[in-house]
Amino acid sequence: MGLFSIKILLVLIIGYFLGSLNTSIIVGSIYGTDIRKHGSGNAGMTNTLRTLGKTAAILVIFGDILKGVLSYIIGNIIITAIPDSSTLYISGIGGMVGGIAAIAGHNWPVYFGFKGGKGILTSFSVVMMMDWKLGLILLAVFVVIVAITRFVSLGSILACAAFPIGAAIKGNGTVFILFSAILSILAIARHNGNIKRLLNGTESKIGEKKRA
Question: Is residue 131 part of a domain?
Answer without folding.
Answer: yes
